[in-house]
Amino acid sequence: MAAQINRGIPASMISPKFLHSNSTSHTWAFGAIAALIDNAYDPDVGAKNFWIDKTVIKEKVCLTFVDNGVGMDYQTMFKMLSFGFSGKEAKDDHNPVGRYGNGFKSGSMRLGKDAIVFSKTKETMCVGLLSQTYLEEIGAENVIVPIVTFTYNGKNQIQALPEHADCLRDILQHSLFQNEEELKCEFKAIDTPSGTSDRTGTRIIIWNLREASEKPTEFDFDKDSYDIRIPEDESEDKKKNFGKPERFMESTPESDFSLRAYCSILYMKPRMQIIIRKKRVKTQLISKSLAFTRKDYYKPTFLKPKSIPITFGFNTKNKQHYGLMMYNNNRLIKAYKRVGCQLKANNQGVGVIGVIECDFLKPTHNKQDFDDTEQYRKTIHNVAVKLKEYWDEVRHKKSSGNPDSSVSVEDMVESPDQNWAQCYDCMKWRKIPSGFDFDLLPPKWFCHMNPDNHFRSCDIPEEKADSEAGDEEQPDPKPFKQQLKRVHTFAQDNKEMKRAKNIEGGFISGSKKPSPLPTMPVPYTTSMPVNTENDDEWYKPTVREDNLRRGQEEQAVICTKVQREKLLSLLSQSSALDKKQQQDPLLEFLKTTSQTFDSLQKEIHGLKQQLEQVQSRDKAESCNESKQTENTMSYESLKASL
């Protein structure tokens, strides 16, 4: 094995076995397909359409991927078939998803052992082969990728460059195509999906697909002729497993086993149409398809003063599918991740979806998770707190509007707050006016069909949703949280007032020991969320307060979790806090405690007055006895002298 030498230093080599090792980063088949979609979506390609299909070529089941982007020349294809080359840059606020220069290699080799790439630019056409079977057959000790460039001759015919004759020979010998005419037909297939000729783009064919147990491939192509699905495997404990281990003991969303459903939510704001098996994917804009939508902001210290918007709402399709939808550079990284109260067995947060774009976090190699950093953990913690606040606010609003209703909020959800349709041409989203039957819209809907004449042209910018309108730095009001904060503040102020009165009262005059007052429990909420300048300040619960009363230490009694939940439930039934008319048990307790203290103070004052009267009377009697004694002594003395 001869290594290349650069200034006497040997160059590193890549074993063919690395192609398989590298592909194992994709534990989920749809994650590998998403890597191929990302390459077409990124701004350096700029594809408007992406076709995914299943075909059979010479008795081989194949997956095909076609885009109508700018195509690749020889140098660009060589970098794509190599490892670690990624020079993608943002363009017109369109940030690239790919960043590691490894998506095609890991994704294609995860789906099958062999892949061939056809690409067409305005000047040239190229074909390249990345094949584990080819490397095994020739006994290669290093990864090699045959690439052939075709150009137009003077007779408007395409022919391979002579210097690529060896590459052409190996491709024809070790691929699905045995002659040049078959290769040229595949270049023509790039034009076929769009229905026009002389179009640029790329076509990828993957064969020798990964096999499943007792099945020819890991995919199910028969259950739905317009979809590619992962079959339902029954494990020993009869739990369905669709390749997502984190879904254990959770309801499995359709996007886990349906490629059509997964592609519908793959991008937060889609710029590319995806067609699966000749049928267009109807994109879902998650943030605009929720009910009871509210807006909030996460303000991390490491991004100060930037704020990260979060949209919360209820799933209108299936309340069992809920959690965070976490995007990075417009690409879905984690779907339906349950956090905070959603992980507890108390039915809190059921049906709630939170949509957040985490461009400040770093995705893992397979783009199915984020690196487990301190920033990621802080984000999950703070978003979980805000999700719980949203849950309390919605329940509080529902209880205020209809306190006698026994129907839970998640069961009240029937339709989104608004209906939005996407233009088939410009890909802009348009809000459909209320009262219009959304189900009557045709599959191919255009801006000029919009009932709202203010947004009846593709040239008009996309309007904002109601949850996005207004001050971009101000979250939606939180009356329930503000009410809790006022109650908490009032309780603290009352406690300080009691402490001041205790100090001012002093001891009873003449007593050797202080008269003990009954110890009253002072309830207050622990770990009360308060408004801080930064959300990353972790909440610390109050554990103890020392209160000296006539030499004795009184320890405040902290409410238990059950008491706090009962208090929250009672507070949620009140529409507003009115100090004069509020019937809340906490305020009644504080009022009763204050009255008890005042009555005790009056009783002590009366006892002090009685004591002073008794002391005055005793003193007067003592003075009279003293004078009488003196008179008696004077009389006896005078009598003796006489």
TrEMBL record:
Compartment(s) of residence: Nucleus
A UniProt-annotated Pfam family: zf-CW
Gene3D superfamilies: 3.30.40.100, Histidine kinase-like ATPase, C-terminal domain
Keywords: Coiled coil, Metal-binding, Nucleus, Zinc, Zinc-finger
Keyword Zinc-finger attached: yes
Presence of keyword Membrane: no
Annotated region described as Disordered, given as residue ranges: 463-482, 611-642
CDD domains according to UniProt: HATPase_MORC-like
All copies of domain CW-type, residue ranges: 414-466
GO CC annotation, single: PML body
Biased composition (Basic and acidic residues): 615-628
GO MF annotation: an example: zinc ion binding
Name assigned to this protein: MORC family CW-type zinc finger protein 3-like
Gene that produces this protein: LOC115806341
